[in-house]
Amino acid sequence: MTLTRAPISKRGKAKAAADAGAASREKLLDAAMLVIRSKGYSAARVEDICAEAGLTKGAFFHHFASKEACAVAAAAHFAANADALFDAAPYTRHTDPRDRVLGYIDFRKAILQGELPQFTCLLGTMVQEAYDSHPTIRAACDRYISEHAKRLEADIAEAKTLYAPESEWTPQSAALFSQAVLQGGFVLAKAKHGAKVAADCLDHLKRYFEAILGAPAPRDEGKRIQ
Asked: In whole numbers, what is the pLDDT of the chain averaged over residues?
């Protein structure tokens, strides 16, 4: 008895093609993140991104009209990956907002792993270089850095209400300050070619937040916040 394969429907072929296209686009975005973080935006060539992704220039230009368009899409891809990482981070499960703020900093320190292009920030790398020459890239980097800061701002605001309600500083300014320390730490890590200086900066940032938020109130051990 001979078995024959049922013909693939037009809908099935369209879905397979769409899945293949999405997979190749994601490969190109992952490659762009690595290449740009390694070389900088200007030095990163389309050929380098294609080689890293294992795809052709034809595939690249099927998905992106230009290197700049790819960089803007890579910024969104980087931010989405970061959102998923931070959504799953252990510090988010703390009930006390002060613990979440300090836990965020501990988590940032914990993920300073691997080679420099693996832990430094794509957004900070691109905006330092392209803020004037490529306003579209600058706007994308500003958007995603600001959106990430907003995540922390919510916890800082809650912690300020509980621990430092009379302080004049704003949660927004404190959240953006945290990002300035992080981006500066990444620059120093590149200059010194190692993560230790960035880790030291995060230690100082943690001390800063401990100081401006004040000491936590004593907790009943039987009702200790986890």
From this structure: 91
Report all structural domains of the chain as residue ranges with CATH numbers, in order of start.
Answer: 68-215 (1.10.357.10)
Nearest to 116 by CA among 182, 186, 50: 186
The single residue listed with the structure tokens 């922390």 is 152
Orientation of helix 10-39 relative to helix 46-53, angle to 10°: 120
Q: Per-residue pLDDT tens for 91-110?
A: 999 999 999 999 999 999 99
Cα R_g (the chain), whole angstroms: 22
pTM (predicted TM-score): 0.86
* Under-50 pLDDT residues of the chain: 221-226
Residue 168 backbone dihedrals phi, psi, to 5 degrees? -85, -20
What phi-psi label fits residue 54: left (phi over 0), alpha (psi between -120 and 50 degrees) or beta? left
Neighbours of 34 (CB within 10 A): 20
Other CB atoms within 10 A of residue 181 CB = 18
- Which residues does 114 contact at the CB level (< 8 Å), separation at least 6? none
